[in-house]
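Objective 1.3, modelling of assemblies. Example input:
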Amino acid sequence: MLRGVLDLCLLAVVVDEPAYGYEMTRRLRERGLSTVGEGSIYPLLGRLEREGLVATHREASDGGPPRKYYSASPSGRRALSEGVRAWRDVRGEVDSVLATIEAEVA
Amino acid sequence: MTAYVEECRQEWKRLGVPDLLAEEMATELESDLAEAQADGVSAAELLGESDPRRFAANWAGERGLVREPAPPKRRRIWPWIVVALFLVLFATWTALQTAGHGSATRGRPVEVTPSRRVSVPNVIGMKACKALRTVAHTVDDWRIAGHPHGSTCDEIVVSQSPVGHVIRRDGHPVIVTLRVGRS
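Predicted structure (tokens):
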């Protein structure tokens, strides 16, 4: 269910502040998305990186190896903006369909 | 956790992911798994995938690090035909060289008896003992036809075979048979 919009969610959690993989999972959970679903975020991050929608850099961590941080690139920000608009349109249409079903069931 | 990451490493190696990038992903994963474990989050919950190899392949694939299998090339046949023809010709030439050389240097030597010319004397009319001495000097062997043991030196050669003339014998002994009788 989340497969199509999880990349938007990932961009959303790094658009303001970079984060490493597990930190992104934590931010998603803090915003209410506790179940990422099958496949996890790493393959998605890989695709976003390949498509240039996220930029990466390394930062030293406490007592461990440097962590890889992700942040939304300029094209990632544009993609996020367009994706959010498209999602809202789709969400409205889907809500309309589901609302009808819900009314019939009720 | 370590076992999971190790499985991922092996899968990336199998898939031909460059070592540095594989190590980068392994380090990232190891750090996140350790932090998740400290938070009480299981690997399955974080990764959503219990099969490390499938997870690793999926991640590398999405990053574009897995080499796509090359499309089959159209094979040209004629270069192979030329090569095959060359090999056949070379093998034939080598076989001929070996056979020719081998006959001269290897294997059992063949004794070649050169043809020779033998002059068989005509001893008809000669006394037996003198006739035998004569032919013995020129031919390989001789025989006395009839009853040789009863013959005497006084008897006369009445016939011989082969007759006296120059003959050629290729590798065979020249044997003269004399027939003697009383004159």
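The longest helix of chain B spans residues 78-105.
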